Amino acid sequence: MNQRGFTLIEVLVTLALFAMITTSVAPSLGNFFTRNKVAATVNHVSSALQLARHTAINENRFVVVCPTVDMETCTGQTDWSLTKMIFVDENGDGALNANEEIIGTADLVKDFHIKSTRSSVVFAPISTAGATTATISICQKEDMQSFARALSVSNVGRVRVEKDSALIDCS
Q: Backbone phi, then psi, for 115, in 5-degree steps?
């Protein structure tokens, strides 16, 4: 006699194994998603800084990156969770004027606390003195320090990711 299907014991054993595997994998899966969200946010902010540096060098002009609320003025604050505007600063005053061009933006970042040591970062042309040095800390709001990273801008404009907790300010 041919039997088709599963016995109750086989189904229960399969479900028990599935439950054990799922409960052992779930915590590490959560960390995986958190690490990816942090990496995406770091890349988002880093891309804005890299665009500014690239433009400053290639066009031989000063370029400013700063947080903004209205796309007309920099906030003057160190909270970089807001939208960031990237503009060419023709007169070197650090403010967006009528004749100056916005070359890019980086959108508002939700679920993250982003704090900089400076209210804006200025990238200089290659023939002049370097960029504004800054450290931009990127921390997830619900788990401030575990997966936090920082972007460090050197005086020559190099942007690099830091994992050293001494450089990261999640306060």
A: -130, 135
CB within 8 Å of 171: residues ≥ 6 apart: 115
Please provide the average confidence, as pLDDT, over all residues in the chain.
88
Residue 39 CB-density burial (10 A; 0-12 exposed, 13-18 middle, 19+ buried): middle
Q: How many CB atoms lie within 10 A of CB 23?
A: 9
Q: Which of 44, 168, 48, 38 is nearest to 116 (CA)?
A: 168
pLDDT for residue 137 is more than 60: yes
The C-alpha atoms of residue 107 and residue 51 are separated, in whole angstroms, by 14
Return the number of other C-beta atoms located less than 10 Å from residue 113's C-beta: 18
Answer yes or no: pTM beyond 0.85.
no
The domains found in the chain, sorted by start residue, are 28-162 (3.55.40.10)
Q: How many CB atoms lie within 10 A of CB 52?
A: 27
Give which of 64, 167, 66 is closest to 119, Cα–Cα: 66
The tokens for 85 are 């505007």
Q: Which amino acid is at 101?
A: E
